[in-house]
Backbone:
């Protein structure tokens, strides 16, 4: 019996030793790299010398370009044309994040306007094929003075976001793309009242067929108000969605989701449901000073070129109140650039 | 019983075959004819996760500068941390490092220290932990708080360990213990001193050749004024995110941080207070193989 266990342990260790590649020297820290980079640039094919002798390949470091030592100086064959950049899964549907991340060093820029004058801008960069960072200005954080007033967007409302996750089918077959995201705004002053928002999201995205994708997630929201009449009502610290005296835990939790349908190769129909805070500066009850409002959006995204996407649709705020009067028509343009990625690849 | 030594030997052999033990075993070449690709092609070794020091030093003839910062934790306040490390032989480094503290203003404040870290000369192999000991002399950090000037100072004696596993080369664990004589004084007020023992831990997951997910958590000193006399306590700082080697000599950091403010937790907020307790930090680390550069430019420090 002992012999059997010994053999099992030895076989397991030996198997692991052969299965795992040697530690990658590109690792700048103390972690070894065993997982293959799905976006890694494939190694350049080594040209075979005409005399049939096998070339010698030496690499000073795994990331350094391979040098071929061949005795006669032959002219280099021309570089093969670069393969076209693959399509990416968009990190944002309309108002909700998706479970897809930008590939490393891919830049994403989205700018939008709606009929109420709402302006949005969203700039992101992919980091390491497992994360992305972005800064944005939002138009869905709104405020009103009294209970009966119609909310209007606080603009500009700047925020930064960081999302981290695993791409679809990475861990196992049919695994949806999973992304944990955090977005937090800078402090914005509006009518003497300072507000901030923050949102922690977990979203899953699954492409069921090449033309149909579904996105579902949960958001944990927080928002705070300070100054002005808020300080007089609730003391110097203001009010916040996380204050347990005013809001339960469920006030912070909100589901969101969306769908993408691609009836034509370049066109997508997209729709989503999202949530955003509405601040009421003069509301007497502190529980009403911060409320979460549901938004429904739908529209069409058209891929004009591999790097340019045009988008238009309808944005309905306050769908929990069936408020169609505040519906806005929006237009957006999105740029996706692999230029920085190619530049970094060439340096490597 | 006779087979036990055989198994031990085979285990050791197998573990040696899994991976090249340490990236810092191949320093950049210091040759007069070295190319930029050779000098900056790495591999380079970092001496930190995000804020947590690790049991690695940057290596001989190497300099590393790193900085992470955020404007998001509190309006108008830059919270940050940084390390400037110069390799001193293969096993030591001299460093200027921000040690983590929660200041009287309630934010994660960088308190400067200067010190030396020594990596114990243990065999570099998977399953054999690396251990380092660091001593950092605290420098005073002045801060204006209402009408008072607050001076904070933290000195650290740090023992930190790093463990890799032959069967899971994508996983690295870190653990450390920090002994911190800590002092705070308030102008026109009192002075408080305490010696704290603060554990810390971290985990790294290699996601691909260049990117690692990192999570770390630590107890750190926290300073409060109650109401004017200073009090020294403990706070929790956690951070998870990405370290990504864009090119071998430059890494980018992006992370989400969490700070457990004990007062906020008592008031009922705690982790659900995303606005106050959570932030996003961006940063970078740049490695400068100054020995290789000096050899290339001036012909000195060559191998």
Residues:
């Amino acid at each position: 019996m002992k012999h059997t266990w010994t053999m099992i342990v030895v076989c397991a260790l030996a198997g692991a030793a052969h299965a795992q590649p040697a530690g990658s020297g590109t690792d700048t820290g103390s972690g070894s790299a065993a997982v293959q980079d799905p976006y890694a640039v494939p190694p350049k094919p080594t040209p075979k010398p005409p005399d049939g002798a096998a070339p010698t390949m030496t690499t000073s470091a795994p990331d350094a370009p391979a040098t071929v030592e061949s005795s006669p100086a032959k002219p280099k064959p021309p570089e093969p044309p670069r393969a076209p950049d693959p399509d990416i899964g968009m990190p944002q549907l309309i108002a909700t994040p998706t479970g897809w991340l930008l590939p490393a060093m891919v830049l994403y820029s989205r700018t939008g306007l709606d009929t109420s004058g709402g302006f949005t801008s969203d700039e992101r960069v992919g980091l390491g094929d497992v994360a992305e960072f972005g800064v944005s200005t939002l138009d869905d954080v709104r405020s009103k003075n009294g209970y009966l007033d119609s909310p209007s967007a606080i603009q500009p409302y700047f925020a930064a976001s960081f999302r981290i996750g695993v791409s679809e089918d990475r861990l196992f077959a049919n695994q949806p793309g999973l992304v944990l995201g955090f977005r937090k705004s800078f402090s914005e002053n509006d009518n003497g009242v300072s507000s901030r928002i923050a949102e922690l999201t977990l979203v899953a995205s699954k492409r069921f067929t090449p033309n149909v994708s579904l996105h579902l997630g949960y958001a944990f929201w927080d928002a705070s108000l300070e100054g002005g009449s808020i300080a007089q009502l609730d003391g110097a610290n203001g009010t916040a969605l996380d204050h347990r005296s005013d809001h339960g835990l469920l006030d912070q939790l909100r589901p969101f989701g969306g769908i993408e349908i691609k009836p034509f190769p370049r066109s997508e129909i997209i729709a989503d449901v999202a949530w955003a805070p509405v601040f009421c500066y003069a509301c007497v009850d502190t529980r009403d000073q911060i409320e979460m409002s549901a938004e429904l959006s739908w529209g069409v995204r058209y891929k004009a070129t591999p790097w340019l996407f045009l988008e238009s649709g309808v944005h309905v705020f306050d769908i929990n109140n069936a408020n169609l009067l505040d519906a806005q028509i929006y237009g957006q343009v999105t740029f996706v650039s692999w230029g920085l990625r190619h530049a970094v690849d060439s340096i490597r | 019983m006779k087979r036990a030594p055989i198994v031990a030997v085979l285990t050791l052999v197998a573990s040696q075959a899994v991976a090249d033990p340490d990236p810092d075993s191949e320093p950049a070449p210091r040759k007069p004819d070295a190319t930029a690709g050779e000098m900056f092609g790495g591999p380079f070794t970092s001496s930190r996760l995000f804020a947590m020091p690790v049991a690695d030093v940057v290596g001989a003839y190497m300099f590393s500068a790193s900085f992470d910062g955020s404007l998001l934790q509190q309006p108008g306040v830059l919270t940050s941390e940084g390390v400037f490390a110069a390799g001193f032989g293969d096993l030591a480094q001299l460093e200027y490092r921000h040690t983590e503290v929660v200041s009287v203003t309630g934010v994660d404040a960088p308190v400067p220290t200067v010190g030396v870290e020594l990596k114990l000369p243990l065999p570099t192999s998977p399953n054999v932990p690396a251990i380092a000991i660091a001593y950092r002399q605290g420098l005073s950090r002045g801060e204006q708080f209402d009408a008072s000037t607050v001076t904070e100072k933290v000195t650290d004696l740090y023992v930190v360990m790093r463990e890799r596993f032959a069967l899971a080369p994508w996983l690295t664990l870190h653990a450390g213990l920090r002994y911190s004589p800590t002092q705070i004084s308030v102008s026109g007020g009192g002075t408080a001193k305490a010696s704290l023992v603060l554990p810390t831990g971290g985990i790294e997951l290699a996601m691909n050749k260049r990117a690692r997910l990192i999570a770390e958590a630590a107890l750190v000193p926290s300073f409060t004024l109650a109401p004017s006399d200073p009090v020294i306590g403990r706070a929790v700082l956690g951070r998870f995110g990405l370290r990504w080697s864009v090119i071998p000599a430059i890494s980018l950091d992006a992370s989400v941080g969490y700070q457990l403010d004990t007062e906020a937790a008592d008031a009922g907020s705690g982790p659900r207070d995303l606005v106050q307790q959570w932030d996003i930090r961006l940063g970078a680390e740049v490695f400068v193989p100054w020995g290789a550069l000096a050899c290339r430019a001036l012909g000195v420090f060559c191998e």
